[in-house]
Amino acid sequence: MLIKVIYLDGSSGTVRSSALGRLTKEGAIVAFKCTEGWVEVRRKHNPADYRGPERRVITLF
Hints:
Elements: E1 2-7, E2 12-16, H1 17-26, E3 29-34, E4 37-40
């Protein structure tokens, strides 16, 4: 099955459904089309990259 995708440069194309997971993990696509509409692919945030102050509070009872 072919799925419509939008690449990082704004161009569009179709890819096999078997390749969709790999392209998503690699960050090679911005969005893909499914039956409900377009799905925006967002990169996962890596907490190790955060350089600000620690804001979590650990409370022990």
